[in-house]
Structure formats: C-alpha cells, structure tokens
Amino acid sequence: MSILILGLVLFLGIHCLPMAAGLRRRLQGRLGNGGYRALYAAIALVGFVLVVRGYGLARENPVVLWDPPFWTAHLAWSLMAIAFVLVVAAYIPGRIKEKVRHPMLAGVKIWAFAHLIANGTLADLVLFGAVLAWAVIDRISLKKRERAGLVRITGGPLRNDAIAVVVGLAAYAVFLLYLHERWIGVSPIVWG
Length: 192
Prior knowledge:
The chain is mainly α. The protein has two domains: 1-61; 64-192, no CATH class. The protein has helices at residues 2-14, 21-60, 71-91, 95-100, 103-118, 122-147, 158-184. α1 (2-14) runs antiparallel to α2 (21-60). The longest helix is centred in the first third of the chain and has 40 residues, at 21-60.
C-alpha cells in the first residue's frame, strides 16, 4: 500500500501545482518553461507508474472493506460512458465544455466515483477516494482562478459536441470490452 500512496502523493501533488500559481511561476522562472514542463512530466510519470504498480500489488492481497451490491457495477458502466465523453469534450471544445466548464475534472470525478461504488477494497478507497478528493479541490481552485481572470473557458461549435460524444463512446466501448481487462487485469463486465 505504501507504493500506491507514494505514487498518489507524487502524481496528485504535481497536479496541485497549478493551484499554487506563485510556486509554479517561481519554478518556471528558475527552470524555464521547458524545464518546468519536463520536471512536471517526469514527476507525473513516476507517480503514475508507482500508482499502477502499487494498486496492482495491493490487489494481490486485498483488504475488503465492503461488498458492493451487484447493481453498482451496472451503474458504474453508465457513469463511465459519461466520463469518457466528458474527457474527450475537454480536448474538443464545444457547448459541453462551455456548460460543464471543466469537463476533464468532471470526467475524473465521475470515473473515481464510479469505481468507488463498484469496488470495496482498501486499495480502491485509497486510489479512487484520493483522486476524487483531488478533483473536487482542483475544481474549487479553478472556480477561484476563473473569477480572478487567471483561467478562461471558451466553447466551440455544436458539431464538436457530436464528435466528443461519438469519440468518447467509441473509446469507452473499446476500453470496456478489450483494454480494461488487458491493462488492469480485471474485466468490468459482470452480468450476474
């Protein structure tokens, strides 16, 4: 569990830098924009690798906290479809992005919540609970930065929303049917 926690500290910690604009500016001033980005990417990558490894190790000897009801897996499927569309909408600005404001964070929150309700181990609580908490804190920070004029949200044409929905649902189908089991080691498809 310690590897998972260290990975989360690194991965989520570096993703908190945008919330600390003064520290970020000092680092960019000291390292240059390229150096800052390289450091950010390196720490995020190391954190991500540790999260994946730590979560995998924790699943080998799971500490079961609760046994989720069967229906939560089906609810998680529906929520994940929405999460995928929102993540894609973050990169294809349309009306979804304009209305949701920060679709990437909304997608991450839905992803974390869906996994919390469908899984019941300590590792799940630590991983998905930490990511959900970070996303909520980051969204609050973004609201403040928007009001201060530091972050500006723009939308785009309605056709971009159609593209986001089609691409998001297609990516979700591929991940659900093929990649989740290959990459994560568990099929999310349960029927009964």
